[in-house]
Write a structure and sequence with these properties.
This protein is mostly helical. Helices cover about 70% and strands about 0% of the residues. It is built from ten helices and no strands. It has helices spanning about 15-25, 35-40, 45-50, 55-80, 85-100, 110-115, 120-140, 145-150, 155-175, 180-195. It is elongated and about 60 Å long. The N and C termini lie far apart (about 60 Å).
Length: about 200
C-alpha cells in the first residue's frame, strides 16, 4: 500500500465513495475532475490526493463497490428455478438499473467503456472484471440441470450472448429512452435462447 494511503481517514470513506459514484455515473469518467469529486464529497482536493493519489484510483475503488453490488443483485434476479423466469427477472433488473435517476443515468460500465482511452489500462481491466463476473453469474444460472435442458444453444454461448445484449440495451436506452422496447428486445432474446414449451 502506498505511503499516502497510510493513516486514519479524516472523512467518511464510504459516504465519499457513494458521492463519487454519483459523479462518475452522471458525468462519465473522462469528464469528471478531482474538483468535481471534492465538491461532491465535501472532501478537499488535497485530502483526496493524499488518500488516493488520483482520479483513477478513486474510480477503481468506487467501481469495485459498484461491481460487487451489481453482481449480487444479478445473482439474486437469476435465482429462479425456471430459466425463462430467471432471464426475465435478470433483464428486468438490468433495465431497471439503467433507468434509475431523473434523467435516467444509464449504465455506468457501458458509459465508461465508451468513454475509455488507451491510457487507462486499470479502468479497462476493471470493466473486463465486471463483465467477466457478470457472464460467470449468468453461466452459473444457465448451467443448472433443469435450465440447461431448456436452452437452444450451449450455456456458455448463451451467457456470452446475454451479457453482450445487456450492453446493447444500455446503448439503445441512451438513444431511445423506451423501456417497453428494451423489454421486447429482452423477451425476443429469451425466446431465442430458451424457447417456450409448446
Amino acid at each position: 500500500m502506498r505511503d499516502r494511503m497510510a493513516g486514519v481517514r479524516q472523512f467518511d470513506e464510504e459516504q465519499a465513495f457513494t458521492e463519487a459514484l454519483a459523479v462518475f455515473w452522471r458525468k462519465g469518467y473522462r469528464a469528471t475532475s478531482m474538483l468535481d469529486l471534492a465538491e461532491a464529497t465535501g472532501v478537499q482536493r488535497g485530502s483526496l490526493y493524499n488518500a488516493y493519489g488520483d482520479k483513477e484510483e478513486i474510480f477503481i475503488r468506487v467501481f469495485e463497490r459498484y461491481t460487487s453490488a451489481f453482481i449480487a443483485n444479478a445473482r439474486t434476479a437469476l435465482d429462479k428455478p425456471d430459466v425463462r423466469e430467471a432471464l426475465t427477472a435478470f433483464f428486468n433488473f438490468a433495465i431497471r438499473s439503467i433507468r434509475q435517476g431523473t434523467p435516467a443515468r444509464g449504465c455506468l460500465s457501458t458509459k465508461t467503456a465508451l468513454d475509455l482511452d488507451a491510457e487507462s489500462p486499470r479502468v479497462r481491466a476493471a470493466l473486463q472484471t465486471m463483465l467477466d463476473q457478470l457472464e460467470a453469474v449468468v453461466l452459473d444460472a444457465l448451467s443448472r440441470p433443469a435450465a440447461d435442458q431448456q436452452l437452444a444453444i450451449p450455456a456458455r454461448h448463451a451467457a456470452t450472448l446475454i451479457v453482450t445484449v445487456t450492453r446493447g440495451i444500455a446503448v439503445m436506452e441512451r438513444v431511445y429512452a423506451d423501456p417497453k422496447s428494451l423489454k421486447q428486445t429482452a423477451a425476443a432474446l429469451i425466446d431465442a435462447v430458451a424457447p417456450p414449451h409448446s
